[in-house]
Amino acid sequence: MNFFFYLTWVLFLFVCLFLILLVLIQKGRGGGLASAFGGAGGNTAFGSKTGDVLTWATSIVFGIFLLLGIALNLLANAQHHAAVAAANGGAPVVTGSAEPGPGPQTAPPPTGLPPAVVGDTPPVEPKAPDAESIGVAPAPTTQPNP
């Protein structure tokens, strides 16, 4: 497994460097690096019809780049799971379980407030008393004058 991982890693690095050089060789709107190689006017460093070939080659190398990136991801995940299993004494790595836990755990209803600290003061009532229960008269309403 390590051999394939490092082989893929080395291939990925070579493809990255080749893709960088392939993009830099192409002629952009402003001439790009291709004009530094002697490409003047409508010509590039390697002839006048290389634009189509370089575009086609860039697409192929980009596809190889993507496939190697996916392969590296899969190999790295497999290597990681094997290392974790070896660290656990050969026990398989379980990411999720269908079996219930030690007992039912109920969570308090969401209030949008942080949880209370144990030993803290009792929670504050969620609603303030209305004006009539504390003996305050409501504010007079004003009518607009006609």
Give the number of helices: 2
User: Main beta sheet, described?
Assistant: none
- What is the strand content? under 5%
Structural class: mainly alpha
Describe, in plain words, how this protein is organized in 3D.
There is one protein chain. With 146 residues, this protein is mainly alpha-helical. It has a domain of 65 residues. The chain has two helices and no strands. The protein is elongated, with a radius of gyration of 34 Å.
Write out key terms for the chains shown.
mainly alpha, 146 residues, elongated
Give the structure's gist in a few sentences.
With 146 residues, the chain is mainly alpha-helical.
Question: Secondary-structure blueprint of this entry?
Answer:
Elements: H1 2-25, H2 50-87
